[in-house]
Amino acid sequence: HGSEVRYVTSITKPTFDSRQKVIEIVGTILDITDRKEAEEHIRRSLREKEVLLKEIHHRVKNNLQVICSILHLQQDKIDNTEMVQLFLETQHRVRSMALVHDKLYQSPSLATIDFSDYVQSLSTELLRTFWKPGVSISTDITDISFGVDTAIPCGLIVNELITNSLKHGFPDGRAGHVYIGIQDSPPGEYTLTVKDDGVGFPPEFDMHKSTSMGTLVICSLVDQLDGTSETTNQEGALTTIRFHLPPHD
To answer: What is the Cα–Cα distance from 177 to 184, expressed in whole angstroms?
Structure first.
């Protein structure tokens, strides 16, 4: 004959006599098989969704890397130096988005990434690409995690600002340092700072009036975050981005 497994929970209460000896035990046994099966179904469903979400992040990252490879192949066929630079910068932007999905794929929560880890990886890649032996990059980003909707625009902004520093801040082999920091104070109010000790912005520079692709991208992304941006020369170039996020982000 077939057998069946049932799950039960019991509540018992002993009765004692005058000498504290148990003379009776009254209890209730409740069949909770349906509840246990429902809980297991939910756990199984969550595991399946986690696997699916990991696979989605992995595939998005791979697709973005394919786009980078295509851009690289096209770049090799171009003789115009300005166009080659444009293709290279586009690859950096796509890679910064691919890196978000790679970090989400590795994240235990699959929903948020450690932004300090992200910026360190991005900085290392940009330093390798631009080959600035005398330039170093440091970060001050502690206990800050972003979901994909915030991480991608923030990652692109950081990508543009670091790229600008490495391209324009240290000409003719000049050595120096680039600093990236994010402060969350008060909670939900974020201040992103990118500073270098290079040659600084050109005189009369105004990010909001500039027509360069990099600054246009930054301004568009700051608007996407409903934030504000400010640039100044402070022994080098200093850019400050401020934006607000609701507590659940």
So the answer is: 23
Q: Residue 82 contacts by C-beta under 8 Å, 6 or more apart in sequence?
A: none
What residues does 26 pair with on adjacent strands? 13
**Please, are residues 196 and 211 in contact by the beta-carbon 8 Å criterion?**
no
Question: What is the Cα 187 distance to its own chain's centre?
Answer: 18
DSSP state of 202: P
The half-sphere exposure of 79 on its side-chain side, counting CA atoms within 13 A, is 0
The pair phi, psi for residue 48, each rounded to 5°, is -65, -40
The encoded tokens of residue 105 equal 């794929």
Token couple for 50:
């986690």
pLDDT tens for the 249 residues of the chain, in order: 557 888 888 888 888 888 888 888 888 888 878 888 888 877 777 777 777 777 877 788 888 889 988 888 888 888 888 888 888 888 989 999 999 988 988 888 778 899 999 999 999 999 988 888 899 999 999 889 999 899 999 999 999 999 999 999 999 889 999 999 999 988 889 999 999 999 999 888 888 888 888 899 999 999 999 999 999 998 999 999 999 997 655
| Partners of residue 232 on adjacent β-strands | 238
181 vs 203: CA distance, rounded Å: 25
The pTM (predicted TM-score) of the whole model is: 0.77
Residue 184 exposure: Cα atoms within 13 Å on the Cβ side: 15
Angle between helix axes 148-168 and 81-106 (nearest 10 degrees) is 140
Judge whether 143 and 113 are in contact, CB under 8 Å.
Answer: no
